[in-house]
Specification:
The protein has 249 residues and is of the alpha+beta class. The protein contains 5 helices and 10 strands. The strands form 3 sheets. Strands 2-5-6-9-8-7 form a 6-stranded antiparallel beta barrel. Strands 1-10 form a two-stranded antiparallel ribbon. Helix 2 packs antiparallel against helix 3.
C-alpha cells in the first residue's frame, strides 16, 4: 500500500471510531443503555451543601389569598458572580421581599445531612414530599387554581396555614397532598437543596425555600478511543519515515 493510502486508512479508522462513539453517546442520551459504549459519563454536582448568598427577585405571576404562589425567582451568589435560580417556597410563616438579600445554609435532600440542624423542620420526608410537589407545577393541563392548591399543600406540610383549597382546578385540592405522600419516594433527590436563612431563629429572617440545582454531566473519551487515536499518529509517523527512506534511496 502506498504511504498516502496508508495515511488515509489510519485517519479514516480514527474518524469512524469517533463517529461511532458519538452515535453511542446519542443513543444513551435518548434512553439507550449500552454497556460497551466508548464514552464514559461522570456527573459532578455544581455545588455541595454549605452556605450561599441569595437575592430574592420576585414571585411568579399566580396569586392566591393575596400571596404569590408557585415558583419564585432569585439569584445565588454575590454581585458579579450570580446565577439565576428557581426558588420554591416551603415556609408560610415568614416573608421575603423583592431585592432582599441573605446568607443561607444549603442542605441536601439527597444525603439529609443538616436536616433539623440547619433547617426549620426536622423531617426529611416532608421536605422530600414538598420537592415532589414542586415538580408538579408544570403538569400539562394545570391551571392557576391547581398551582395555588399545590402551593397550599406544600405550605400545609409544615404547619396549618388555615388556607382552604380553592375550587375550579382540574384536580381537587386534597389530590395533591395524596400525590405527595404516595409518590415522594420515587423522586430522585439529587440536586435538591433546602435554602434556609443562617439566622433562621431571629425575627425577620427570610423564608425557607427548596432549590433544584441539577448536576452537570461531563463526557470524557474511553481509554480504548485514546489508544486508537495514538495508534493513528504512530501510523502517520511510520508513513513519514518510509517517505524519508525512499527519498534517500
Amino acid at each position: 500500500m502506498r504511504p498516502r493510502a496508508v495515511a488515509f486508512a489510519v485517519v479514516a479508522s480514527f474518524v469512524l471510531a469517533v463517529t461511532a462513539s458519538a452515535q453511542n453517546q446519542q443513543g444513551q442520551n435518548q434512553g439507550g443503555n449500552s454497556p460497551s459504549s466508548p464514552l464514559l459519563s461522570s456527573s459532578t454536582p455544581q455545588l455541595q451543601s454549605g452556605q450561599q448568598h441569595f437575592t430574592f427577585v420576585g414571585g411568579g405571576s399566580v396569586s392566591a389569598y393575596g400571596y404569590s404562589v408557585g415558583p419564585y425567582s432569585g439569584l445565588m451568589g454575590t454581585q458579579g458572580n450570580q446565577t439565576p435560580v428557581i426558588l420554591n417556597c416551603v415556609d408560610f410563616f415568614h416573608s421575603v421581599h423583592a431585592g432582599e438579600q441573605w446568607d443561607a445554609n444549603l442542605t441536601s435532600l439527597s444525603t439529609g445531612t443538616g436536616i433539623g440542624t440547619n433547617t426549620r423542620s426536622s423531617s426529611l420526608s416532608l421536605y422530600r414530599e414538598a420537592a415532589y410537589l414542586s415538580t408538579l407545577y408544570g403538569t400539562a393541563g394545570n391551571n392557576n387554581t391547581d398551582v395555588a392548591n399545590i402551593q397550599i399543600s406544600i405550605w400545609n406540610l409544615f404547619g396549618n396555614t388555615g388556607l382552604a383549597y380553592k375550587s375550579g382546578g382540574n384536580q381537587t385540592g386534597s389530590y395533591w397532598m395524596r400525590q405527595a405522600t404516595t409518590n415522594y419516594a420515587s423522586l430522585n433527590t439529587t440536586g435538591y437543596y433546602v435554602v434556609t436563612d443562617i439566622n433562621k431563629n431571629q425575627s425577620g429572617s427570610a423564608q425557607e425555600f427548596l432549590m433544584y440545582n441539577p448536576p452537570t454531566t461531563t463526557v470524557t473519551p474511553e481509554p480504548a478511543t485514546l489508544v486508537l487515536f495514538g495508534t493513528g499518529f504512530v501510523g502517520l509517523a511510520g508513513v513519514r519515515l518510509r517517505r524519508r527512506r525512499s527519498q534517500k534511496s
